[in-house]
Amino acid sequence: MNPMKKAIFRSQFSSKILNFFAIIISADNSMGRRLKKTTRVNYLYPLSIIFLIAACNSKIENNEVKKESGIQPWSENPSYWEYNGNPVLLLGASDNDNLFQLPHLKSHLDSLSQIGGNYIRNTMSDRDETDEKAFYKNETGKYDLSQWNSAYWERFENLLKLSKERNIIVQIEIWDRFDHAREQWQTDPFNPKNNVNYTYEEAKLDSLYPDHPGQNKQPFFFTPPSLQDNQVLLKYQQAFVEKLLSISLNYNNVLYCLDNETSGVEEWATYWAAFLREKSGDKAIALTEMWDHWDLKSAEHKRSLDHPERYDFIDISQNSHQTGETNWNNAQYVFNYIKSKPRPVNSVKIYGSDAHGAWLSRGINTQHAVQTFFRNILGGFASSRFHRPPHGLGLSHWPMQSIKTLRKIEEKVKFWNLKPLMEGLSDREENEAYLIGKAGESYLLYFPAEGEVKLDLNEHTGEFEMSWISLEESEWGESILLKGGVKQSIQPPTNTGSLALIQAK
């Protein structure tokens, strides 16, 4: 409801309330006489009407906010997300990139929701064998890019609907470079040999793109007017995005990411960001781009960091290629860089799995994935999600334990009330322990494995209560008391990951 209509509605509603009471009073003189018996009643009665009107207007306002307020940066702390008027920490794990194509989608979302998960990733991809394509296929086996395959879009809307029912936020990636190169190009509807809409010559496309898509040689990603101005292909890309928006804008649990780990030129992203804004009209959307560079200090990431007017949040999933202390330090660089204009920082993908042999030599294993998840959340991320197997752990044992553990901690302390306090640790080795808190009140200390550090409790001379929770159990252990006003030596009870919550009594 726009401000003018809202004002008119309130005025009309208030007028009707006053008229209603006037009719009651004039129709019942005995009531009127009784109301005049005491001065107190004379003052309270009209005041009660005023308060009633105010309460009704407030109720209208609050209901409207609750109905229309979707996922957006939190008004009180824009480093975190707000959903339907309440701050929310987004935690997730799922087993597929293009989750809307998953046959057992409902049970998968149920499993995530039951452990406290509320965040998934969904690429609009269709490159797997059992996937539906976005476009209609005729009797000769060719696609018509001017007609839709309803099954594809029904799957997409079903994902949004099921997720909304479970208060799960969906981060969509519209374009995925892996859909349009190498062997995937051979079955791609946009490949001229597979459709009835244009030839290779008309669309300025080739029959083969054998290189890794990270080399960005595919003209598909150069269509905007500021680049190759390929209107033959661009109009079908535009139609695809408009069709997507015609469905997604009906849901308030959607975040938009333009590309999956793109190494493309800036003009491509700039064009689509503006296109989505225009086509979304009055509907506010939260939008970002996911750059491919593993170094967050690169010029590539400045395209997002320097443009809060274009990108409402930042996704730095590629930082999970960095291990140990570097993973933490590079993320903290981003938070420091944007501190004058804070925005939510997401990680919709955390890499790492013992099943991905090619990455194990770099330490991108199961342990790395779990550690990154906790470093992210302690470091101030607004979201984190375990990537799908085999590149990530998906919705398996350790991700489930990790999400449950953080939700247990959230019952006692909110992460947005804490901040990194690494200076409060001494006798610490690299990647041994991480500390966040509110000095003198609450501390949360994370040990990725074994270790022993000294925690400075000089901010409060009284006693502290310390409780441990391990990832293996995801349950609180017995509490012990610590003396304040000194540095306390602290050692975890297990070497498989644990956290200590230390609060002043």
Description:
By secondary structure, the chain is α/β, with parallel strands linked by helices. It has three domains: 3-67, no CATH class; 69-417, TIM Barrel (Alpha-Beta Barrel), CATH 3.20.20.80; 419-504, Immunoglobulin-like. Helices cover 35% and strands 18% of the residues. The protein has 13 helices and 22 strands. The protein has helices at residues 3-27, 29-35, 39-68, 105-114, 150-165, 200-203, 231-248, 266-280, 299-305, 324-337, 357-360, 366-379, 397-410, and strands spanning 72-73, 81-83, 86-88, 90-93, 119-123, 135-137, 143-148, 169-176, 254-260, 287-288, 314-315, 345-346, 383-386, 419-420, 425-426, 434-438, 442-447, 453-456, 463-470, 480-483, 487-490, 498-504. The strands form seven sheets. A six-stranded antiparallel β-sheet has the order 14-16-17-22-19-20, covered by helices on one side. Strands 5-8-9-10 form a four-stranded parallel β-sheet. It has a three-stranded antiparallel β-sheet with strand order 1-2-3, with no helix packed on it. Helix 1 runs antiparallel to helix 3 and helix 12 runs parallel beside helix 13. The protein is elongated and about 75 Å long.
